[in-house]
Amino acid sequence: MDSTKLDAIVVAPHPDDAELGMGGAIVKMLSRGMKVGILDLTTGEPTPHGSLEIRARETQAASKVLGVTWRKNLGLPNRSLENTLDARRQIAVVFRETHPDWIFAPYWVDAHPDHVAATQLVEGARFWAKLSKTDMPGERFHPKRIFNYYCVHLKMHAQPAFVLDISEQWPTKRAAMECFHSQFIKGRESVSPGFIDQLEIEAAYWGKTIGVRYGEPYSSREPIGLGDFSALI
Fold first, then answer.
1. DSSP letters for 10-51
2. Torsions phi, psi for 47 (to 5 deg)
């Protein structure tokens, strides 16, 4: 693990979750000059139409589309991700070595056990990252914020803390999601609207709630502070 300093890390249970949940935000942050990385916890395999090699190629292609240059995979067990001390330690070490102010994790309620475990791990690792008198490498560090993106497997209506305008970033987000052909396109050719078209409809809905073309919803367990109202739309 390198010691690159990042402004934000998106922690994803599987490769493609970062793109699905907050591809627009990633592109927007990068365009503002922020250093953003993606930490995939598992390979995401096996899946019906994928393989380790296919998923690695798709992930590399999606990262290139987004403009992400820092992306790591911890290789934790897909379908069996658990909130273990060892996994918590591995994530805490990443935080200690990269010092991100902002952490993004999945929304904490989900039907997918991997997603729930991922958020539990992130919250525990955020606390552990600041520990002293430990054998963990890196400098002790406490990320300022955890925000939660929506990439859920429940038929639920989200009630987010805020919605981000991603109108300009939507075409890039869509292109990044389309890189995961084995996950979102292959085997779904006869479905109408297609999976990614459904996500576009959702993004348009969230955009409508804030008066723009496309939006991404986010939540947070902690209050969100504003220095002033200049960033509100």
1. EEESSTTHHHHHHHHHHHHHHHTT--EEEEEEE-----TT--
2. -135, 165
Residue with tokens 């493609």: 16
pLDDT (mean) for 24-29: 98
| CA 186 to chain CA mean position, Å | 23
pLDDT value at residue 2: 56
Q: What is the pTM of this model?
A: 0.96
> Tell me: the pLDDT tens digits for 172-215?
999 999 999 999 999 888 889 999 999 999 999 999 999 999 99
Q: Is 90 helix (H, G, I), strand (E, B) or coil?
A: helix
Compute the distance between CA of residue 1 and CA of residue 93 in angstroms, rounded to an integer: 9
Q: Are 78 and 117 in contact (CB under 8 A)?
A: no
Which superfamily, per CATH, for 8-219? LmbE-like (3.40.50.10320)
Within 8 A by CB and 6+ apart from 16, the residues are 44, 58, 59, 62, 177, 180, 183, 184
Q: Which long-range contacts (CB under 8 A, 24 or more apart) does 51-54 make?
A: 51/182, 54/182
Query: Which stretch of DSSP H or E encloses residue 147?
Result: strand 145-149
